[in-house]
UniProtKB/TrEMBL annotation:
Protein's name in the database: CP-type G domain-containing protein
Entries under NCBIfam families matching the protein: GTPase_YqeH (TIGR03597)
Gene3D superfamilies from the UniProt entry: P-loop containing nucleotide triphosphate hydrolases
Domain CP-type G: from-to ranges: 46-222
CDD domains: YqeH
Taxonomic path: Bacteria, Bacillati, Bacillota, Erysipelotrichia, Erysipelotrichales
One Pfam assignment: YqeH-like_C
Species in which this protein is naturally found: Sharpea azabuensis
PANTHER family: GENETIC INTERACTOR OF PROHIBITINS 3, MITOCHONDRIAL
GO MF term set: GTP binding
Length: 361
């Protein structure tokens, strides 16, 4: 007998262990389309549950792609490209054809030209050994460029299966749901939420009698802020609309706090323009560097904070000299530019990645 799967996350349905994925009470395990308890509560009560699958489990699941001749739709979060890129992607997918979708275009400033973003992406992909068939900017929430994406998939797949891959929370399930809605299919939608790791197994969606689109599990990046904050803070740090750059004039003895989650010290000798790109719901606080540690330790004005990071000494300090045309990225949070180029210091929890890259904006 073919195993029954949750139509929301793809997990195998079971009624024996409420703590494991795919659990459905026996009384609710009826009919062809069943929603597991986790997906039901995500959809109806917006409750977050930890998935009992490791990053190794996720990679093992997508390794089946390497044994197939297929088209891979690779989705990245353009606002946090460095945190959403899959290391060694081509090796995991057996060097199959790749169509890159850069999601969350609506979050970047409208003044930024699509052509500029695409060229920036192509340079990054070349550095990583990825030669995509095409690069398409999109917003899965707003169905941006969905006609172009649909045509590209139909053209490039050449009758083959399509596998949608990406890091956790880049918008894979939202993309597939938007595609289904866009073309008139209204049932069997995949569970989506802002919580990372929603899809737990391969979800098959038939395209025709011989081929299908598969939604794959998101690979968890444990070094992003989205993985270490609680559900309330997650809503604050994830931009829900266009990010408005905020520029501050700082002297060499001044500091910016991004909420209570990160600290930025400007170490230059001359005044500089510091432009921040973060969710508008995160408050930026400016203070003298000499007072920054005591301000954080008192926790009177800075929020949100991580409970486990009670004092500034629990943060890790990293120093960088930003060259002209570079920006510093705090993974899962946002990024900062400095003009003119100068030395900066960043404080974040030890498990959060910080990158210096060629400026996107």
């Amino acid at each position: 007998m073919e195993e029954k799967r949750c139509y929301g996350c793809g997990a195998v349905i079971q009624s024996t262990d409420p703590k494991k994925i795919g659990y459905v009470p026996q009384s609710a395990n009826q009919g062809e389309h069943v929603l597991c308890q986790r997906c039901f509560k995500l959809q109806h009560y917006h409750q977050q549950f930890d998935a009992s699958l490791s990053a190794e489990d996720f990679l093992k699941m997508i390794s089946v792609i390497g044994d197939k001749n297929c088209l891979v739709v690779y989705i990245v979060d353009i606002f946090d490209y460095d945190g959403s890129a899959i290391p060694g992607l081509m090796r995991h997918i057996g060097y199959n054809d790749v169509l890159l979708l850069a999601n969350k275009r609506d979050i970047l400033p409208k003044s930024l030209k699509d052509h500029h973003i695409e060229m920036w992406l192509r340079r990054r992909l070349k550095e990583e050994g990825i030669k995509p068939l095409d690069v398409i900017l999109t917003s899965c929430k707003k169905n941006y460029h969905f006609d172009e994406i649909y045509d590209a998939i139909d053209n490039y797949r050449k009758g083959r299966d399509v596998f949608v891959v990406g890091m956790s929370n880049v918008g894979k399930s939202t993309f597939i749901n938007g595609l289904l809605k866009h073309y008139g299919q209204s049932d069997g939608f995949i569970t989506t939420s802002e919580f990372p790791g929603t899809t737990l197994d391969l979800i098959k969606i038939p395209l025709d009698e011989k081929s299908a689109i598969y939604d794959t599990p998101g690979i968890i990046n444990k070094h992003q802020y989205t993985q270490v904050v609680d559900a309330k803070t997650l809503k604050l740090i994830m931009p829900q609309g266009e990010v408005k750059p905020m520029t501050y004039q700082l002297n060499g003895d001044q500091t910016l706090f991004i909420g209570g989650l990160a600290r930025f010290d400007y170490l230059g000798d001359t005044k500089a323009s510091i432009t921040t790109f973060f969710s508008k719901r995160l408050k930026i606080h400016r203070t003298k560097t000499s007072k920054a540690t005591s301000l954080y330790d008192n926790h009177k004005e800075l929020s949100p904070c991580l409970d486990r990071i009670a004092r500034m000494q629990d943060m890790v300090m990293r120093e960088y000299f930003l060259k002209d045309g570079q920006e510093v990225v705090i993974s899962g949070l946002g990024f900062i530019t400095v003009k003119p180029a100068n030395k900066v210091r960043i404080y974040v929890p030890k498990d959060i990645d910080v990158f210096v890259r060629d400026a996107l904006i």
